[in-house]
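assembly run, all chains below
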Amino acid sequence: MQPSDLLDCPMEPLSLRERRRDAILDAAEALFLEQGYERTSLAEIVKQSGGSLATLYDLFGNKQGLLHAIASRWGNEARSQPAECMAMTDLSNVELLKGYAHRQCDRMRSPRSVALMRMLISESLRDRDFALQIYRDLHIPATEELSTLFAEWAATGQAEIDDPEAAAKLLLSIVIGDSMLHTLAGLENEWLDNEELDWRLQPFLSHFRII
Amino acid sequence: MQPSDLLDCPMEPLSLRERRRDAILDAAEALFLEQGYERTSLAEIVKQSGGSLATLYDLFGNKQGLLHAIASRWGNEARSQPAECMAMTDLSNVELLKGYAHRQCDRMRSPRSVALMRMLISESLRDRDFALQIYRDLHIPATEELSTLFAEWAATGQAEIDDPEAAAKLLLSIVIGDSMLHTLAGLENEWLDNEELDWRLQPFLSHFRII
DNA sequence: AGCGGCGTGTAATTTACATTACAGAAAAGC
DNA sequence: GCTTTTCTGTAATGTAAATTACACGCCGCT
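ok done. output:
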C-alpha cells in the first residue's frame, strides 16, 4: 500500500497492539538488562510500559515467551546492520586493525553489552536456546567478518596468516581478554585503554607480518 | 584415629555440628554450582545433606550467609595451595610457559570452574561482595604469580618484557580468550586443544624473546 | 447509534520458597 | 543416669510472583 519504502516500511501508523508490543519489549529489555531476568517481575514491566498484564500474556504467552521475543528482536537488529565495512579505506592494514580493535573493545564494554552478556550467562543453564541464539547472533558475526578479512589479506600477500579463523579468534581473545571477565564479575573500570590495546596488538601484528 | 597423616590437623573427631556444617556446605556448593543460587532451595540442600532446616539457619543465619560461608571456604582452599612452583625445573622457559598455559586452560575449563564463574557472574548484581571476593581469590593470584615470573625473567635477561603485569594479563587473555565466553554461554567443547594453544603462544613468545 | 472485539485495571488463584515455631529425639557433659 | 544443650522432622507463616479470571470502558465498523 505504501507509495515507496526502501527498508522496513515506515509509513503505517502502527496499530495500538503493535505499539503496546514495542513498549512492553522496550521496558522488559531495559529492566531485564538492569536487574536480570529472574529478579524482574512482569508487574514491574507493565507498570513501566503502560498497558496491562493481560495484554502481555496475550502477546507473549508467558515470561519466557517475552524473553524469546526480546532475543529475536536483538537478532534482527544485529542482522540489519550487518558489518562495518573494513576495506576501502586509505589506512594501512595496521591502522585498520587497530581501529577495529578499539571499536570492538568499546562495543564490548558498553553497559548494554555487558548487561546482555551477564544475562545471557545467567540464563544459559535455565534456557539454553535463548543463550545460544543470542551468542550466535552477536559473536559469531564478529569472528566471521574478521576471519574473512584475514583470509583476503593472506590470499593477496598482505599478511602471512596460515589459519584466518584461528587468527580471528586469537585477535578477539587479545582484545576482549580478561577484561570481560573482570567486568562481568562486577569490577568496572578495568578495561584496556587504546594505548594498552595497541601494545597488545604488537606481537600479533609482527608475527603475522601485517603491515 | 588414623595412625598417620600430615596436614590439616586430623586428630579430633569433629563434632556433630562441624560435620553437619561441612555436609551442608558440600551439598549447597554442589547444588549452587549445578543449578545456580536462586534456583536452589534450602529444603533441597537439607534433603541432600541430611540434617534439618533449623540447623542450617542456626549455623548460617540465612541463605546469603550460607553463600558467603561457601565463598570463604573457597578462599581458604585457594590460599592453602598457593602456587605451582614454576621455577626449579630443567625445562626451557618456552616449555615452562607452554606447560603453564596448558594447565591453566585445563583449570579454567573444568566443570567446577565454569560453574563457579557462571554463578559468580549471575550473582554479581545482587551481591557484589560475594562476586568480588571470589574473583579476587581465584584470579588475582594467577595474574600475580605469572607477573612475578616475568619480572624475574626480565631482570635476569631471559626475556625482554617491559611491563610484566601487562604481559601476564595478555598471556591469560590469550589462553582464556573467547573460550570462556563460549563455555559460559552454554556451548561446551569449544576449548582450545594444546596444539592450538601452542600456536597462539608463538607471537607472544617471539615478541618477548622468550627462549 | 449500536455491536463486537480488544485493551485495561483489579483482583483471585496458585505455587514456590524463605523463614520461624515447636515438640520430641539425640547427644554431650557431668 | 540425669540434665541441659543441641539436632531433627514437620508444620506454620509470610511474601513474592506467575498466571488466570473477570468485569468494564474504548474504538472502529456498519
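Chain A has a mean pLDDT of 88.

Residues 16, 41-43, 53-54, 57, 62-63 of chain A lie near DNA strand D (CB under 10 Å from a C1').

not gonna interpret more than that til we talk
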